[in-house]
């Protein structure tokens, strides 16, 4: 089974006797590495209580849209932006009708109306309801909007009748989810080099100069490029993260080591993404033994090589992306860096904001390209930011190709 590591999912559960199967589905999704937030309708709570889902997911269960005691009272907006997908299982005929007609009268329906991520619905209903013309029309409306509505299974129903209306088994729902999440293999044939994490510049055998980078953005970029069919080399400074298994992984410590690794793997690369936070300076003469004593200490620093500018100068046709962690005048500073380095795309974020940037799971970035474009991405999971950056690269490259084709010869 395909892993779902790093994916933030929403599991919507509605009022059906099949709601107990959502517990099994939740357990399987978390076992596959997904982070799952469960959203229960009022009637779903009559079948399975929030405590069961909270215990298995390790996360708050969302229920009441207007609970004044809840910190999640407006969570539908943020969750709709963060989620990689929303799965509704079971999805009753009532839920299908509300969603098809844009009704937003509880947390789940409001979330579905705000969502821009893939939505998968696994229906469950009794007695011949699936064949009713109204249900068929609602399903057709949802499918026309891009919602994946599974076919219910046939068999014994809760009423004692037999027919179509049984909730698909959890294995089938997960398979449909994986298919829904699977991106187009639009990077097949591409050779992508990604740098990630910090570098460490030694002061002595014990101490070093470094920064707060965790590597999460670069590792997410490597994983996203692999999912989309690319051959990926990940050059990483020290990080606690596990590199994607299918990537060529090159661990480094210092900026000099990162430079050597990147230039070595630059041959044949079509896309280079420099997401690493490379130390700007290193100690000119690190001590060979541990520095002892409590006293004032002066370190003589010297600039590290400018890997990004060097890559841009020797790119051999590769599309080059840089990152900028800013604390003020983000757009202006990012545009200046892009022009100074001679790169194609600059991804900038304001690291002074809480909850994004260094060591966070989310990011909110500004994409600035050398053709004059500015595109702001709202706060979302770094996995989603990674896919958005890759999509932007392909779009910019196609557009640049069209401009080149129209240029006078």
| Widest β-sheet, arrangement of strands | 12-11-8-13-16-17-19-20
- The first-level CATH class of the largest domain is given as Alpha Beta
How many individual helices? 12
Q: How many E strands? A: 21
Quickly give the CATH architecture of the largest domain.
3-Layer(aba) Sandwich
* Range of strand content: 15-25%
Distance between the termini: 52 Å
General form: elongated
Which structural class fits the helix and strand makeup? alpha/beta
What can you see in these coordinates?
The protein has two domains: 8-181, Rossmann fold; 191-288 and 297-406, 3-Layer(aba) Sandwich (Rossmann fold), CATH 3.40.50. It has twelve helices and 21 strands. It has helices at 19-31, 50-57, 75-82, 93-100, 107-114, 133-144, 170-181, 216-227, 255-265, 307-313, 330-341, 382-406; strands at residues 8-13, 35-40, 85-91, 119-123, 148-149, 153-156, 162-166, 191-196, 201-202, 208-209, 231-236, 248-251, 271-274, 281-283, 301-303, 319-326, 345-350, 362-363, 365-369, 374-376, 380-381. Helix 3 (75-82) packs across helix 5 (107-114). The longest helix is centred in the last third of the chain and has 25 residues, at 382-406. The protein is elongated and about 80 Å long.
């Amino acid at each position: 089974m395909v892993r779902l590591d790093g994916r933030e999912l929403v599991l919507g559960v509605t009022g059906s006797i099949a709601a107990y199967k959502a517990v099994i589905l939740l357990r399987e999704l978390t076992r596959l590495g997904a982070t799952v937030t469960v959203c229960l309708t009022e009637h779903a709570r009559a079948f399975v209580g929030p405590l069961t889902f909270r215990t298995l997911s390790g996360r708050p269960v969302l229920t009441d849209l207007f609970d004044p005691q809840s910190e999640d009272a407006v969570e539908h907006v943020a969750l709709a932006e963060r989620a990689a997908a929303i799965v509704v299982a079971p999805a009753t005929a009532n839920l299908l009708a509300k969603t098809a007609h844009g009704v937003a009268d509880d947390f789940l329906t409001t979330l579905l109306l705000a969502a821009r991520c893939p939505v998968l619905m696994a229906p469950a209903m009794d007695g011949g309801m699936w064949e009713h013309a109204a249900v068929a029309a609602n399903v057709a409306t949802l499918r026309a909007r891009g919602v994946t509505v599974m076919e219910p299974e046939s068999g014994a129903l809760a009423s004692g009748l037999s027919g179509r209306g049984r909730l698909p088994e959890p294995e089938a729902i997960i398979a449909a989810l994986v298919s829904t999440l699977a991106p187009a293999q639009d990077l097949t044939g591409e050779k992508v080099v990604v740098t990630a994490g910090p570098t460490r510049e030694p002061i002595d055998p014990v101490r070093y100069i470094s920064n707060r980078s965790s590597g999460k953005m670069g590792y997410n970029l490597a994983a996203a490029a692999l999912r989309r069919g690319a051959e990926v080399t990940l050059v990483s400074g020290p990080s606690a993260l596990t590199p994607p298994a299918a990537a060529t992984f090159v661990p480094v410590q210092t900026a000099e080591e990162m430079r050597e690794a990147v230039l070595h793997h630059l041959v044949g690369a079509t896309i280079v993404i420099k997401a690493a936070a490379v130390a700007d300076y290193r100690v000119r003469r690190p001590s060979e033994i541990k520095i002892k004593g409590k006293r004032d200490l002066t370190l003589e620093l010297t600039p590290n090589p400018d890997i990004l500018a060097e890559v841009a100068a020797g790119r051999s046709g590769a599309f080059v992306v840089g990152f900028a962690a800013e604390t003020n005048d983000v757009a202006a500073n990012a545009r200046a860096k892009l022009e100074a380095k001679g790169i194609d795309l600059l991804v900038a974020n304001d690291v002074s904001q809480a909850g994004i940037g260094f060591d966070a799971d989310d990011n909110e970035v500004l994409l600035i390209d050398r053709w004059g474009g500015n595109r702001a991405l709202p706060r979302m999971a770094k996995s989603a930011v990674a896919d958005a950056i890759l999509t932007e690269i392909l779009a910019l490259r196609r557009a640049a190709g069209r401009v080149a084709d129209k240029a006078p010869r």
